[in-house]
Specification:
The complex is a heterodimer of chains A (about 500) and B (about 80).
Chain A lengths: L7 H24 L7 H6 L6 H12 L2 H14 L6 H25 L5 H9 L2 H33 L6 H50 L2 H11 L10 H18 L2 H9 L3 H32 L5 H4 L2 H10 L3 H42 L5 H24 L13 H4 L3 H9 L5 H21 L8 H20 L2 H11 L3
Chain B lengths: L11 H14 L12 E2 L2 E2 H24 L7 H5 L2
Helix pairs in contact in B: 1-2
The chains are: A mainly alpha (about 500), B mainly alpha (about 80).
Chain lengths: ~500, ~80
Amino acid sequence: MELTFSGLSGILVMLFYGLLMLGIGMITYVRNKSVHSSLSEYYLGGRGLGTLVLFFTFFATQYSGNTVIGYSAEAYRAGYSNLVSVPFFIMIILVYLLFAPRMYMLSKKHNIVTPVDWLQLLFQSRAVSILAAVLMLYALANFLLEQLVAIGQGVSGLTGGTVPYQVGVIFFIIIMVLYGWLGGMRSVAYTDTMQGISLLLGVFLLLVGTMIYFGGISSAGEYIQSYSPEKLGVPEGGGLVRWLNFLVLVGIGAAVYPNAIQRIFSAKSEKALKRSLTQMSWMPFLTAGVVFIIGIIGYNAFPDLNTEESEQLVGMMASAVASQNLFFYVAMILLFGGIIAAIVSTADSVLLTFSSIISKDIYGRYINPGATDNKKIMVGKIAGVIAIGILLIIAWNPPGTLYQIFVLKLEVLIQTAPAIILGLYWKRSHAKSVFTGMLVGTILAACLTLAGLTPLGIFSGIWGLIVNLVIYISGSLMFGKVDIEKEKMEEVGIG
Amino acid sequence: MDKKKKEPIRNYKIWIGFGIIFALLTPWYFPSGEEPILMFGIPLWALVIMGVTVGLSSYITYVIKFHWYLEEDDEQTREGN
């Protein structure tokens, strides 16, 4: 991203945000010395997150810096058919209503720490748990990789290249790992609060600046009508299918993000969870909605960008706004600090969840069940650092072929949704069918993605999900024994 | 089952509401290929979709507030489902 904050001011804002995050981590550590005493203390903040912090940590997990940069560029390119980005973020909350109420209640009762723990509770099946753990770790690693690359690009763009890509990534990784290690979920959630506020403030100021200097949405609409009216049209045919795909894929896929699910477990009370989810259901208007408007106003400012150039849209607009006066110069520094903070805040929650699955589900369940929680936490931390090391090597030397393997995320994650959601309610669920559905769905989704196929215009992840559900449901109808299952369910408190 | 305990999944009426909103959330019901009508520079269909989206958020808010209450769960609730 191009921005004229080269030199000292860019470096200062980066240092400021980095040290602020570290400071929050240290304060959290000092105030909660027992943070390493148990898995739920470290990974779930002692199940004590109140409404405000819980809301911001949900917010930071769901919205990354990518939301601002990528979505405004897409709105610029596609026009109004990209408006779907507002409702699809709300669909996530709708999907939560399907399972979060009971999930929260049971997670508290059964001391659940990770989403894999949850599946173990539902199915008591080693095959289901291990497959789900592998899929989640894989998707989380890819998600983390994406964030690491974004940090590097953001920092080098913000400072006009004064701070090189590699230095930016290493600096923020060290900060992130340090505050994560110090305070676990508490540090992550508190820094998320700071990071979320910076992002909201920055995006809001960018909107004000673009409206003042490039005209409002009304003049942008008239401009588009004259020069590319197709961008105002109703999506039809393939466009409608694509729209629907997004609502379903993002709604279900993002709701079962392991790091998002862990936030349900971390809620202090049902009331706190309810309040923060209510607030989350309105946030898309202030984030995706505002970002969409910025993309549309972009037409007025820079009418003829090609695809590659349009990726720089936010940077170009911010740069133009910043050059107007001192107020907006400072405001745009805040914006870019906020964007980087938002990327870091998404990355930290992914890393923490990654470590928790290693600690609790891989090491703690299968390798050394007798280990103390403190040791499990240590193993999770080390595994997280090793994973980051490997991802950094990939980030710097992207493999020429099969690069798409590192892009698969939602397509894979969504395959765990039937087990997580349906498994909660359907007593007849048959573990082997659940496993087979998840495995076949994943393979199908991955093959279609790698081959670049979307039969009938339906996304690969949704094809995988359909096949996955068919196998799950038909297998459970044929082989599921309700009595035995019921007994098991009652044993674990569902029934 | 204790009447005070409420869970959205158990109330099918809620999901009829969500079904209707979901059906209206995709702009299939606008005439295609016509010159878009602009209001304040925004296509009319996009304003309608935004209206439905506000409806979705409002309905979610309503459901969370009035149809989700499980805390202080007891065995009785689970046996009743």
